[in-house]
Specification:
- The complex is a heterodimer.
- Chain A has a domain of 175 residues: P-loop containing nucleotide triphosphate hydrolases (Rossmann fold, 3-Layer(aba) Sandwich).
- In chain A, helix 3 runs parallel beside helix 6, helix 4 crosses helix 6 and helix 6 packs parallel to helix 7.
- Chain A contains ten helices and ten strands.
- The N and C termini of chain A lie far apart (49 Å).
- Helix content of chain A is 34%, strand content 26%.
- Chain B is an all-alpha fold.
- Chain B has one domain: Phosphate transport system protein phou homolog 2, domain 2 (Methane Monooxygenase Hydroxylase, Chain G, domain 1, Up-down Bundle).
- In chain B, 76% of the residues lie in helices and 0% in strands.
- Chain B contains seven helices and no strands.
- The longest helix of chain B has 34 residues.
- Chain B is elongated, with a radius of gyration of 20 Å.
- In chain B, 38% of the residues are buried.
- The chains are: A alpha/beta, B mainly alpha.
- The interface between A and B is medium-sized, with 15 and 17 residues.
- Bound molecules: adenosine-5'-diphosphate and magnesium ion.
- Adenosine-5'-diphosphate binds next to strand 2 and helix 1 of chain A.
- The site of adenosine-5'-diphosphate (ADP) has 12 residues of chain A, from strand 2 and helix 1.
Chain lengths: 262, 251
């Protein structure tokens, strides 16, 4: 008889992408991509500019719905369900699969209201005390609470870049997502603020599954467990980060990560 | 492989690589000269070898500094990372081989007193030539990332070990015949052991080149032929018959 697998051996996919193609008009931006998003892991999407990383990331919570000319075929499943099914409530979906953007984009409101925004819409709190708790916990999980505890009423836009980005992470966390998508979340930050976010992501992984688009290969190597390399809309290679950065299989991956002329 | 977009990265890698190749060339020459000095009892050449080792040490120092700089500044990945790490290790092995050659040269004078065993210097010469060839081939394998050649070198080490084994038996017989032979025989054995150690270093280098190219360490254990650590000959025993004493203590 086979030995039963240990719990830690079982790979659980929180999302699966199967044969996804994305077109912007006649521009074939993502070509037949299949990808697994592992639970409680950080998956990094890397590749040259314009290779379709952001496009694919936006497919994962239907952010492309808002783009008129964008056509998507294939299948994206979350929790076993096709997220493009017509019965899916997109607002609820985006609460489960949150997003953090390249440029920190806090609302022109107080720090408190930035975080409370989602929970209010989704009616996650029954009273003021519960909402306060959600705001405090979310700020704590985003590693920001200690820095802003005494000025929750100040505008979020008054924070430093790194703090603003952590505020956006707190805002995403506040609606209790399971997956967090991040599109180059550190590209506007200095190295110290970047390191703070990276350290935060390492902690966040315990509670969330993260997909990050990054143009920094060093960052992908430092923080992710899995890496997917894209090139001209194709997913060229995906696998354990330790493998991709030491022994990539495909010549295109090798050229890219070693900084060679492909 | 294609060039790097940042061309100064290629220049850096070329520089460390050429330093290692320069070291390799020097090490080979040192071994050639140490062997010549020994065979011809040329104490002037022996002195030159002892002095010459400093140049190899200096080059190793340069490789160390260079590779740390490349790691810090370029943060290489994949093949580039293995190139830097392997180069660092190859330099360290070459430095050790250089030390053995120096050691060999130092014993030249002592050997002259052991001229009774002139046949044995022939064996030492053959061992040394084998090792010289291994050094050359290893550097070739490194330059051309030649896996087959590296594999060949890796298996050639056995021949060096065989020569050491037979020399060991021969020396034991001489020593048993007459205790006055002991001192000379011991020097010859130490030199032989030095050469055998060089072979071990070169074998490690060959494996590192396999790692550099394949990204994986060779799985199979290489044959190990140095059995002198367990070889015992009792006085009067027929020394063709002592296979029972051989035990492989792979380390
Ligand atoms: N909103 C959009 N409308 C039209 N074309 C787009 C849009 N977003 C991206 N594209 C195109 O899709 C391709 C992939 O872009 P993107 O996903 O942003 O790449 P990456 O994030 O890897 O830099 C590019 O050719 C880009 O011009
Ligand atoms: Mg992008």
């Amino acid at each position: 008889m086979k030995k039963p697998k240990k719990k830690s051996d079982v790979v659980e996919n929180v999302m699966t992408v199967r044969n996804v193609d994305v077109f912007y008009g006649s521009n074939h931006a993502v070509k037949d991509v299949s990808l697994d998003i592992r639970k409680n892991q950080i998956t990094a999407l890397i590749g040259p500019s314009g290779c379709g990383k952001s496009t694919l990331l936006r497919c994962l919570n239907r952010m492309n719905d808002n783009i008129e000319i964008c056509k998507i075929t294939g299948e994206v499943k979350y929790d076993g369900q096709d997220i493009y099914d017509k019965n899916v409530d997109v607002v609820a979906l985006r609460a489960r699969i949150g997003m953090v953007f390249q440029k920190p984009n806090p609302f022109p409101k107080s720090i408190y209201d930035n975080v409370a925004y989602g929970p209010r819409i989704h009616r996650l709190a029954e009273n003021k005390q519960q909402l306060d708790d959600i705001v405090e916990n979310s700020l704590k999980k985003a590693g920001l609470f200690a820095e802003v505890a005494d000025r929750l009423a100040d505008p979020g836009t008054g924070l430093s870049g790194g703090q603003q980005q952590r505020l956006c992470i707190a805002r995403a966390i506040a609606v209790e997502p399971e997956v967090i998508l991040m599109d180059e979340p550190c590209s506007a930050l200095d190295p110290i603020a970047t390191a703070v976010i990276e350290e935060l992501m390492e902690d966040m992984r315990l509670n969330y599954s993260i997909v990050i688009v990054t143009h920094s290969m060093q960052q992908a190597a430092r923080i992710s467990q899995r890496t997917a390399f894209f090139h001209m809309g194709e997913l060229v290679e995906q696998g354990a980060t330790s493998k991709i950065f030491t022994l990539p299989k495909d010549e295109r991956t090798k050229s890219y990560i070693t900084g060679r002329i492909g | 492989m294609n060039d790097h977009i940042v061309s100064s990265f290629d220049d850096d890698l070329d520089k460390v690589e050429s330093l290692v190749l320069e070291m390799g060339g020097l090490v080979e020459q040192q071994l050639v000269n140490a062997t010549l000095a020994l065979v011809n009892q040329d104490s002037k050449l022996a002195k030159q070898v002892v002095k010459g080792d400093a140049r190899i040490d200096k080059l190793e120092g340069e490789v160390n500094v260079m590779t740390v700089q490349v790691l810090a500044i370029r943060q290489p990945f994949a093949d580039d990372l293995r190139t830097v790490i392997t180069t660092l290790k190859l330099a360290s092995h070459l430095e050790s081989i250089g030390n053995y050659a120096k050691n060999m040269a130092r014993r030249t004078r002592a050997i002259s007193k052991a001229s009774a065993f002139s046949g044995s210097t022939g064996t030492l010469k053959r061992m040394s030539e084998l090792v010289q060839q291994m050094v050359r081939e290893t550097l070739d394998a490194y330059t051309h990332r030649d896996v087959e050649l590296a594999e060949l070198v890796r298996n050639r080490d056995e021949d060096v070990d065989q020569l050491l084994n037979s020399l060991f038996r021969e020396m034991l017989t001489y020593m048993m015949e007459d205790p006055r032979h002991i001192s000379g025989c011991m020097h010859i054995l130490f030199i032989a052991k030095n050469i055998e150690r060089m072979g071990d270093h070169i074998t490690d280098m060959a494996e590192e080149i396999l790692f550099l190219v394949n990204g994986k360490w060779p799985k199979d254990k290489r044959p190990k032929g140095d059995r002198t650590s367990t070889l015992i000959i009792e006085p009067g025993e027929d020394d063709e018959d002592d296979d029972a004493h051989f035990e492989d203590d792979e380390s």
